[in-house]
Each structure stands twice: as C-alpha cells, then as structure tokens.
Amino acid sequence: MNIRSVLVANRGEIAVRIIRAAKALGLRTVQVYSRADAESLPVQLADEAIEIGPPAAKKSYLNIEAVLAAAKAADVDAVHPGYGFLAENADFADAVTAAGMKFVGPSGEAIRLLGDKVMARQVAEKAGVPTVPGSNGRVSDLAEATAIAARIGFPVMLKAAAGGGGRGIRMADSVEVFERQFPQASAEAAAAFGDGGLYIEKLIERARHIEVQILGDGENFVHCFERECSLQRRRQKVWEEAPAVGLPDNIRERLCASAVALARAVRYSGAGTVEYLYDDATQQFYFIEVNTRIQVEHPVTEMITGLDLVQEMLRIAGGENLSVRQEDIRIKGHSIECRINAEDPLRNFMPWPGTVETLSVPNGGGIRFDTLLFPGYAVPPFYDSLLGKLIVHDDDRAACLDKLRDALDRLAITGIPTTIPLHSALVADPHVRAGRTHTRFLEHWLDTDFAALTRAKEEA
Amino acid sequence: MTTADIKSPLPGVFYRKPSPDSAPFKNDGDAVAADDVVGLIEVMKSFHEVRAGIAGASIRFVVDDADAIMAGQTLAEVQQ
Lengths: 460, 80
Prior knowledge:
heterodimer; A: alpha+beta; 3 domains; eight-stranded antiparallel beta sheet; B: mainly beta
C-alpha cells in the first residue's frame, strides 16, 4: 500500500470507525476537529488532532480550505471524508488530489457525474439498470412537465436534480396539485441547492428501500450483496438489515449484477452504494441514486460478509487491487442495525443534546456498538443526532431479532433521551418480525401503534 | 411597565432570520403578539420555531443572530 497516513475529515462515530480501520492497517491517523469537538472520542483516539475552526460545520468540517490546510500541515498521504460533510463534494476530492494526496473515494469526476441525479439516471439506463418511470432528464417547462406526469400516471414525485438524502422532494397526486407544486418546487430547489432543475418520477406506493454495496478498484468491480433500509422516518433511515427480508434469489442476483454493471460503466473506484426501490407486488426494482461514499449502515454488510469495508477503501486508495473476488463474497446469516439517536421518541423525536452520565454497552458474540460516546461526554448541539449504532448478527433473522431484543435491553445510556425505546418497541412488533414493512410503514406505525404504547405507559 | 423574558426551550444555535438572506423575524423595538415567531433554533441539524409566548409593545434581543445558546437562556426581553 502506498499510503502511510490518513487525515479523517469527519467527526463522530464514523471518525472513530475510520481511525480503528486505519490503525489496523498500520497507518498514522490525524483527526481534524471543530472547537466543539476538542474532547471528542476520535480526537482522543487519533495519533494527532488538528483544530480547524469554530463549532458551526460551515466554518470547520465543511470548510475545504481549513481541512486541506490541516492535511498539508500534518503531511498526510490520504484524506478519508467519511459520510456527510465533504464526502460527496467533487471539488473537495479534486482539491485533495491536486494537493498531491489520495482522496479515499472515487474521483471528483465520478462524484460529479453520479451526484447529479439526472446524469446518474442516464448512466444507469445506459448500463441496463431499470429506472423508475419518469422524465428523461430535467424538465423546465410546466406544460411539458404536466404532459410527462400525465403519461407516467399519478401519483408522481417532483425531485430536485441537485437534491439528495431525502431533501427537495414533493408529491403530486393530480394535475391540479402538480401544476401548483411545479413552480414552487423549482423555486425551492433554486434556493436550497442553487439549482432549480427538477425531474419527475412515478411514486411507487408500497416500495421497499433496498441498496447494493459495491466495491471497485477502477478495474475490478464486485458487489457485497444488499441491505434493506425500509424503516424510515422523514426519509431518514432508522433501522437497517442485511440481507433484504424474503428477497427471491433470482431477483437478488439480477439486482446485485445491475449494481456491478453500473460500477463497471463508470470504472468505479472505492466503496459505493447503489440505491433502489423494490416493489414487492411486481418484484420489480428501480434505480434511485448512487452514494459515492461509505454509508452509515455499512456494518450490516460487514457482519454478513466478514469484509472490513473501511479497510478495503483505504487499501484501494493506497493503490491496491480489491482483496476479494466476487466468488469469495458470500452471505452468512443475518444482521440488523439500529440507529441510536439523541432524540426523545416520546416527544416527537425532539433532538436533545446533553451530557451522558452512564453508558452500559452489551457485549457478546455477534454484537457490535459503533459509537462516539463515553461516560461524561457532552453531546454538542451543532451536529446530527446519531450517537451510535447497535449492530447484531446471528445465523438467521429470527435469531438475530432475539439477540437484538436482548442487546437493546442491556444497552443503557443515561443523562440524555435516546431512541432506544423506539427500537425496543420495533423489535417486539409482529409486522417488523414478519418483515412486512415498506418505506411508509414507520411513520404510520409511530402515529398508531407506537402512540398507543406510549399512552399506555403514561397511564401506567 | 413590566418586562418579561423569552427563554429558549432548547439548546442550539439561535437564528433571528428565517434564512440567511431574509429580514429578521423581529427587530428591536417591534411589538410582538404571543403567537409571533421571533426566531429559529437549530439543534442537531433540525430547526424549531421559537414563539414569543407573551405579547408586548417592544421586544429587545439579548443574543445575536447565529449565537450558540443553552436551554433556558434568555433570548429577548419584552416590555409589556
């Protein structure tokens, strides 16, 4: 490997995860941090730490000049961007490369191409990946857009070409609503993303969110099977599994092959995720987007395949070929991840930072807790609410659910509210146990089943 | 004349404007109704509106736009 040191251009649990992987490979680790993160776990764990600015992410973790200056000062060979912040910023990837360092991820060009929803869709179509029926690219004219929507059939979604992560999406279930939404959505996209471009897609009403992990070294491309992330609240994933529940083998084969075809089409380098919607009723899958970075939920893939995706990313950035061939990658058992957030599920998921008093983490085979927490840590209010991820693995899904229930019982965080009670309720739910969920299941379940549970608890 | 405080219900970052390019929700000296939004609090990447909660003839902010604030901290004083 031609790198000996790496700068971690992120914070929180993923920074901890990257430091551990880098150390396992014998790399020197340098952590950047904002003034709010001086006491954070990754700063304690890294070999060196460099302050890059005030708490506001815009002035620290999103400040390309500040991060680059730290990388140069620390004289590192590579920069790992984690997820969020600058992870999918093509200009950042280019700047790292131009400064003579390796960006741990695909090229700026690939990020630019796949980050544009319209171009990514065209790449997918060319590679033979099925896409959701919709406009063939950007639409700017209302009459043309309305005609396309009518042809696809309502309900449809209006999506900002520059959006992502669930932002910049509107729904329309009739021509009247569509004609009202279109100009508003365009103005909103222009304000939010600096690009008013929109495209139109059919809304699949009972869709499951299934995504395929890919790895590439620019010459060889493999998939590491799929994850299911159908349990979402406000389009944010809450609970993820691998493999997808009850996905027929022949569909899995075609789904994963399509992700590899896409990776090959762009000569992908690094770890990436191809996201799909899957319609149980028709057994059709449709491409949504590519994420050109490590995902929050990558551990479930690691648990079922035995791969270390973050180490693999670092090795690829270090000029090595993939360490595995497709035939070496197999699914073993089942894995589930619960995102533990600093939010109060009993108060409409109000985020609530504060100081962790005690922390008790379950241990045992097939249990993993990726976290930024330690007792006495003051969770700052400036960043997202993810505190950690409880990940369990067992021989099959039923055993995995039992292990998860037990692990959730033993995971205790005091001092701040967390979403642990949400996950304890989900793991006991018969629909969840039966795998009968889809992307709109959780919000409805929160309003009905979870609300009833909460009321019963209050009365008792 | 009495003065009452508008306190922050949450820790986070206080914004006096709905977006960086907009005019402030309220200027010093403005009258406020109890239901008026006087600012936004960003906490863990989500935004929450702060309503005055009290009516008065004149509001005066004691924190600046984009200041970090604690739960229970006084954001503004209202003369009633």
